[in-house]
Amino acid sequence: MPRGIHKGAVDGAPTESVLVLHSDAGGRSGVWECTPGRFASSRDGDSELMHFVAGRGTITSADGTVHDIRPGVVLVAPDGWRGTWNIRETVRKIYTIWTAPTTTPTTTGEPS
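Structure for Cupin domain-containing protein, as requested:
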């Protein structure tokens, strides 16, 4: 289902499409596609696992780390992640996004 031009577009007209395969209170999974362009992105309150099945480009994290996008690449963007996508050839990924925990996990067996 087309969603239009990515809201963080800074170069070109990267147009998104998404097919949600599952969604519940804990998160969602599906297929996402985006045409060439460059856009800012962030994860706020959730984390994402991405498995790229088509396309080419790069994702540059805020810390300067550059990740190649190509078929077979798997990446995780944790809660709080920030970066920029630069898509050179239409990208398709399978994704799972899960909601970040609202409480801090405790360590078992150690006094607090």
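The chain has a mean pLDDT of 91.
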